[in-house]
Structures are given as structure tokens and as C-alpha cells.
Amino acid sequence: MNVVFIGAVQFSAVALKETIESDLKVVGVCTLAGSKFNADQVYWLICITIKEELGFSKERIEKRAAEINRVNQAFRFTGFRQLGFPTTFLDQVPQNQIIEEISKFLIEIQADTLYLPYRNDVHSDHANVFDASISCTKSFRYPFVKRVRVYETLSETEFGLRTDDPGFKPNLWIDISSFLDQKLK
């Protein structure tokens, strides 16, 4: 399987005994570890970036780069890419540009399984990434995509206040018992 984790801000997990702020939290270390140890090819795609011109300090930018590097090294991804879209202005980037960049990556790696952020949590960038990514799952354009899974971001998903959204309804559970000690560190 070619699995790709697509994140709006940053993939994260518990890695090297350090808690790293995340988009994936629980699913990150457990699902990723399960995928890696089941000999899947696991890729990581980060759609946005932080920059000084967006109001982030040089120190925060350097800290984030170090966090990303630690996670990338800890999980030894088959492939990794940052698209570099502006974090606080993703909603102002034409959707076709985001789709085009995600599409290029998926075609390059022939991803058959996508993990996407839940569309209706409180962060609008998650909705933008979800919408662009889901456009890349049409079977007539991307016949290699077989599975699309949505992950819950525990500290953010429950803050979505859309009255028309019934909330995150998981329908897939992955046995993490063989990775539980790693998760609890």
C-alpha cells in the first residue's frame, strides 16, 4: 500500500519521547506506526507553512522546522513534501492551485490510501485541505486511490460549532495494542 497522510498544518505524533503539536495526535503515532511496520510505503504531505511575513517569529519558524524534522526522522517516511501555502491565508489561495499541487504528489506516488483532516473541525484550513484532497479521489482521474480515511484531531474536532454538522463519526478502529507502549511514552 502507498499511504499518504495529508495535513493542513503539520503531521504530528508522539515521537522520540517528545510530544509534538499536531494535526494527527492519536492517529499519528498509532496508525502511522501500524502502517510502517506492516511494510506500507508511507508518505507525508504538509500543505501549509508559517513565515515571518505572516506574523510568525523567527524562533517559532525554526522550532516548527525542527519539530517537522524530528517527526520525519523518527518515522522515516518513504517520502515527504511541504507545499508551502500560507497558513493563515489558505482560504485566499485559489482552490485549483491547491488541488493541482496535491494531485501532482498523489500521481507521483500513486497513493492508494489517503488520510485527511476532518472537514468540519474549527480550523478553516482543514476544510480547505479536505476539499482540495477529496477532489483528487475521483476514480476516473485517480484510479489508484482505493481508500479515503478521515482523522479526528482531538483538541480541535470537537470545537466545530456548525449546527448542521452531526460531528465526527468514526467507523474504523485500528488495533494499536502492539504500539500502545510507544504511544504512552
Residue stretches low in confidence (pLDDT < 50, at least 5 long) are 8-30
CATH architecture: 3-Layer(aba) Sandwich
Evaluate the radius of gyration: 16 Å
Q: Distance between termini?
A: 28 Å
Largest sheet: 5 strands, parallel
Residues in helix, %: 25-40%
Bulk shape = globular
Number of strands: 7
Percent of residues in β-strands: 15-25%
CATH homologous superfamily descriptor: LmbE-like
Which fold name corresponds to the CATH topology? Rossmann fold
- The strands making up the biggest β-sheet line up spatially as 5-4-1-6-7
**H/E element string?**
EEEHEHEHEHEH
How would you summarize what this structure contains?
This protein has 185 residues and is an alpha/beta fold. The protein has helices at residues 25-37, 58-75, 95-109, 124-134, 180-184, and strands at residues 2-7, 14-15, 18-19, 41-49, 79-86, 113-117, 147-151.
Question: How would you describe this structure to a colleague?
Answer:
By secondary structure, the chain is an alpha/beta fold. The chain has one domain: Rossmann fold. It is 34% helix and 20% strand. It has 5 helices and 7 strands. It has helices at 25-37, 58-75, 95-109, 124-134, 180-184, and strands at residues 2-7, 14-15, 18-19, 41-49, 79-86, 113-117, 147-151. The strands form 2 sheets. A 5-stranded parallel β-sheet has the order 5-4-1-6-7. The protein has a two-stranded antiparallel sheet with strand order 2-3. α3 (95-109) crosses α4. The two termini are 28 Å apart. The model is unreliable at 8-30 (pLDDT under 50).
